[in-house]
């Protein structure tokens, strides 16, 4: 296990190093001089040279890469050209909002996806199965930005059941200000017993979370169905059938547990995907997360901002993969020798 | 034990759904190919007097903010989307399969190096790397193709490497090696043809995802732009008018949904029919 652990950790470090280099290369490809973007169009040549020196742009490329890595490791993720704040602080406020959205969506997806997958497996090749397969296929095929716009227009603009945009009612900041613990609004509101903000956030979460949940719910349902159908061909299921257990009991009580193993690693992998898919949803619902930050960075050519978001999400992805692999190594020793 | 009454079962469901997807796909491809003959109006024919008309018998899907017939634009938009998908899949399969087959056949450090590089590219979620690249390059259809292909090839490299590795242990490969056949010829004549089936299945599964990503990039203004007809772009242009003119966003979005759905259903059906776990090692 120790050998597997170090090998896998080394691999992850290598990937992170590659990710950093690639991000650096992409950033250097950006047309236009970052010094000009920072100093502004009316800057004098002296100011430009000063900005150039400040960012180390007058150094050769490999020195710049080295400086970049050194800064990253020491926690300096650069200064956003748009907000003029350290990128790390910007990400620190934006990331929790994205986590909140994706977390809510994944909970929703699991709560819907697994039972629906069980239902399809129970009635394999009959009407409920067809319905679930059709529904899950539609859920993974729907363009998120379009679904977001549609739900927003129908349920917020026309019917007025839910708020149109934002994370919570901004006027609550004055009437019942929120104490920050985790930076995740809904969690903080719950811990501190701030009910006005809690209910308002919940209200604002429903539509965007539904949209983000569509893809993972579809994938989870398909995976649960497939894993259950495969599991019900196992020997132990024949035994249970012979002992006189009903089909539903067999599926939910005996087959579901082993079948959930691949589903769990799927959930971890779909998390990173949903995080980025959520960017589009954040743009539509003006959710104050990473996605909105990324789009603002893109429209204002804020390279440090874009690089920061790219790096953060890539590192999260590597970490999630690492955790999944290590957990599987714990559960299933055969994985370690691969 | 409960007695299960013999019910009338539907014939095997996957086949039905997959067949449905195939028929849908043929219709979509045909309507894109024959757009000039099928479309009721000229492509990109703004008529200022016919702005934002509701769906009617003369404009089935209504007209947009400059008076173009939306059905016509959707038909022509299908050409853009399908062309993007075809180009992305061709480029990424070419790059991915080449590297993958070489890695799988060569093994050793060559395989390690190639696989670590694919790991790095896989660490970037596709949409994000495409976003970053689409910002760097000028917004255009070519940008979309390049940006998505960059994130897509590692999957084919990984898949074909594992298949090629198992094919390379076959006795006919050993025999060829003993006869002194040069390695490139072995890879080209023996390993590649026997490793390609799973890749083909994966291609049909991926086409839906490519179409969704391409539409998302165009929706964000990083891809196709006027005067190219593109579904994601149509949604973007219509979103400000969505509350008052529902048809400007609804129909282009449905076009994306139906196309991605057709590809996904067909790919799923092909996968379960061919069952890669069995076809990999024949």
From TrEMBL, chain A:
Q: Which SUPFAM superfamilies match?
A: MetI-like
Annotated ABC transmembrane type-1 domain ranges read 95-328
| Membrane topology per record | Multi-pass membrane protein
Query: What is the residue range of the signal peptide feature?
Result: none
Q: Where are the transmembrane segments?
A: 12-30, 101-122, 134-155, 205-228, 263-285, 305-327
The domain of life for this entry's organism is: Bacteria
CDD domains linked to this entry: TM_PBP2
Give UniProt keywords alphabetically.
Cell membrane, Membrane, Transmembrane, Transmembrane helix, Transport
One GO cellular component, as annotated: plasma membrane
Protein's cellular compartments: Cell membrane
Q: Extract one GO molecular function annotation from the record.
A: dipeptide transmembrane transporter activity
Q: What family does the entry list?
A: Belongs to the binding-protein-dependent transport system permease family.
State what protein this is by name. Answer: Peptide/nickel transport system permease protein
What is the scientific name of the source organism? Nonomuraea dietziae
UniProtKB/TrEMBL annotation, chain B:
- Which UniProt keywords are given for this protein, alphabetically ordered? Cell membrane, Membrane, Transmembrane, Transmembrane helix, Transport
| Location in the cell | Cell membrane
Q: Where are the transmembrane segments?
A: 17-39, 82-108, 120-153, 246-267
Q: What Gene3D superfamilies is this protein classified in? A: MetI-like
* InterPro entries xrefs: BP-dependent_transpt_permease (IPR050366), MetI-like (IPR000515), MetI-like_sf (IPR035906), OppC_N (IPR025966)
The ABC transmembrane type-1 domain covers which part of the protein? 78-267
What's the protein's topology in the membrane?
Multi-pass membrane protein
Supply the Pfam families for this chain: BPD_transp_1, OppC_N
Show the PROSITE patterns listed in the entry: ABC_TM1
Record's GO cellular component terms: plasma membrane
**This protein's superkingdom?**
Bacteria
- Chief location category: membrane
Q: Name a single GO biological process.
A: transmembrane transport
The UniProt similarity line reads: Belongs to the binding-protein-dependent transport system permease family.
Query: Can you say what this protein is called?
Result: Peptide/nickel transport system permease protein
Q: What is the lineage of its organism?
A: Bacteria, Bacillati, Actinomycetota, Actinomycetes, Streptosporangiales
